[in-house]
Amino acid sequence: MLSEEKNRQLTQVGPGTPMGALLRRYWLPIAAEGELDDKPVKAVRLLGEDLVLYRDLGGKLGLTDRHCPHRRADLSYGFVEQCGLRCNYHGWLFDEQGACLEQPYEDVVLGNVRGRVTITAYPVRALGGLIWAYLGPDPAPELPEYEAFNWPNGFRQVILSHIPCNWAQCQENSIDPVHFEWMHANWSVRLKGANGPYGPRHLRIGFDEFEHGFLYKRIREDTDEKHDLWAVGRAMIWPIGIFLGDHFEWRVPVHDENTLSIAWSFQRMPLESEPFVQARIPYWYGPIVDEAGTWISSHVMNQDFIAWVGQGRIADRTRERLGRSDLGVGMMRRQLFADMETVARGGDPKGIIRDPAAAKDVRLPLVHADRYRTGMARRDLLAHPVLGRHLKGYPYQFGQPPELLEEIWRAAGVTRAQLGLEQAKAPVEQTG
Ligand code: FES
Ligand SMILES: [Fe+2]
Questions:
Q1: pLDDT given at position 112
Q2: Residue 424 pLDDT more than 80?
Q3: Which of 58, 123, 316, 389 is deepest in the core (most CB within 10 A)?
């Protein structure tokens, strides 16, 4: 339980708030790189700021204030030039540093006596098929290049969804092992119309801190201390991510009542398809409700979305009753409050990387490392109880475009018939 004041501190992310100041110390993923291939200018709302993201004709990325400093037109309707973004109202042109390069009419009548104009601009970079932004003070820390981004011979995809609630309740889910048993395993049984059998019960859970976040560990009725789920654990990436081996998820704070869910998925292609190099990383937006407006509950992340949004636009933590399964949630909150104080004192919060060498190929705790670092023959992949199922469709979120799935099958050299998909529908995978 938190006081009203503490709940506000935890959830308000706009400029000038303590949490806003903390989150501005990190590089945050804000879009799929492929979005700019389709349309080079994109309106972005991040940490309560209205911004515009673009890639100019020279290939440079920019992230600036959404509103033109002339008469406040919306720059997401602007157009890109060889260098920079031009406002579609009177043609003022801005580069990625925020300098106004041209004011077409003023340049004619005033020449170089026209006043200097600038616009707010933030550093922005592409990595791993994602666009990352940094909204904090200089100098920016290093952008971590996770090992998974460099794994060879994999099919990657990016999945985005707009979630109408505050980011913190989404991220509390990243340190919550027990919800998996109920929300995913057992609820899925009931959703299918059966009353059982239920999944294995949690017998023990544990939490550890590590350099880049926190780990949660579990022992279930069907596993023991030697199992990777206890020996390695799952990694919550500080402060807004989680890494589950075959995918990352980030809960990107749009504003106090909205979050952008970004997932990055990796599927190792079979040895027979090597070398497999992806020319571009595809992306798709996953719907969260169906045509009737009913929440989609068929996939793991969709189930999580239902939990997060069900807690309210901003979860009222003055009325919660934490239990023994919530030790990780408590750890996360304590660290966030400590980090807010550190930032207020001018220090670096948890997980910031300043050494460029330390930001290269960042290794994270990894369960089933051999699945990703080492390939597997096509026959073994098809027969694999988990990876074989993953070939039948994206397991974690509803809405994968069929043509993208077919692209994966072509890359992997597998057929619908080999996957047993002539009639059957892809089952729901459960990992978390
Ligand atoms: S409002 Fe942008 S150029 Fe006039
Ligand atoms: Fe979950």
A1: 78
A2: no
A3: 123
User: Hey, what amino acid is at 8?
Assistant: R
Average pLDDT, the chain: 96
pLDDT in tens, 332-379: 999 999 999 999 999 999 999 999 999 999 999 998 888 999 989 999
Give the whole-angstrom CA distance, residue 365 versus residue 135: 28
- Where exactly are the structural domains of the chain? 28-133, 147-419
Encoded amino acid at 160, one letter? L
Ligand 1 atom closest to the CA of 75, numbered from 1: 2
CA angle 108, 113, 117 (to 5 degrees): 90
Say what the pTM is.
0.96
Q: Match 């974690």 to its residue by tokens.
A: 396
Distance (Å) from CA 90 to ligand 1 centroid = 5
Q: Determine the topology of domain 28-133 in CATH.
A: Rieske Iron-sulfur Protein (2.102.10)
Separation of alpha carbons 118 and 192, rounded Å: 57
pLDDT at 317: 98
The CA distance from 146 to 150, in Å, is: 7
Average pLDDT rounded to a whole number, residues 16-36: 98
Q: What is the pLDDT of residue 115?
A: 80
Backbone dihedral region for residue 214 (phi beyond 0: left; psi -120 to 50: alpha; all else: beta):
beta
Query: Which ligand 1 atom minimizes the distance to the CA of 78?
Result: 2
CA of 69 to the centre of ligand 1 (A): 7
